Amino acid sequence: MLNYPIKFKPILKEKIWGGTKLNQILNKASKKENIGESWEISDVAMDYSIVSNGVLNGKSLRELIQTYKGDLVGEKVYQTFGKNFPLLIKYIDAKEALSIQLHPNDALAKQRHNSFGKTEMWYVMQADKSAELIVGFKNEVTKKEYLSHLQNKSLTDILNIDLVIEGDVYFIPTGRVHAIGAGVLLAEIQQTSDVTYRIYDWDRQDSEGNFRDLHTTEAIDALELSSKENYQTSYKKSDNIIEEIIDCKYFTTNILCLDKAIEIDNKYKDSFVIYMCVGGEGVILKLDNFQETLNYGETILVPAAINNLEIIPLNKSKLLEIYIQ
Fold first, then answer.
1. Is the pTM of this model over 0.70?
2. Which domain holds residue 255?
């Protein structure tokens, strides 16, 4: 019954750096404190997303792939990834800064962790005044220089640190040093992987006085030492037109800034399509005799078998559209 857009129950993760925005701004109901992440669509082992709407309610994402195969994810995607869903979709709230970290590429991740690598992107949904993101180095560094700053706890002296506002986008390829700063709420799109090399954690201790593990040795072989003049991704924001933000081998992400209904034709994509509502009051996704509301801070998956639908904004709203080329 892949004749409707599918919603999943958010998987909420407590984090030492998490806050209350996922609950208070994105309406992720939870009695837990310090919620740092909402995994919206996940095929990570032991964290499989569960359907929350329609006749498939209660089924896991893994069950859907096993049953519907290419009708769910697209024939080309299924031939490449099999029963593994290739993307992990999150919302992240950083009350405090996350650790400075990086991720290995596919080859290293496969060799060391039997996992995919972790290329990702960020879309800033809300940022407190003076909130920052760390992305990459200011200037190209050597391994010796990097290790010296790491040992002397002066790593931030050589890192690129940007003030951010709503709508800013950053693409984070494997190997690039990065960290979400305090006061940032963002949407994250990434390869399905939970492999992170933490290189500095601000000398932070948990409630029992323990420091989190660092991965200094593992990170050296994975580290991107080069630099860029500008790490922020620029893109167009045209009303009622699908505009591309990121196109890489792992995912394509577009933005839709809507104030009127538009028709969507996905028949040439041969891929599932994910929509994340990252601004405004939300939209209605309508096809045939079915419709589903996508509110601000929600995520929905449109199966590859669905070619056409209408998206109707409740007011001026922004969506991220994600699929695999």
1. yes
2. 242-323
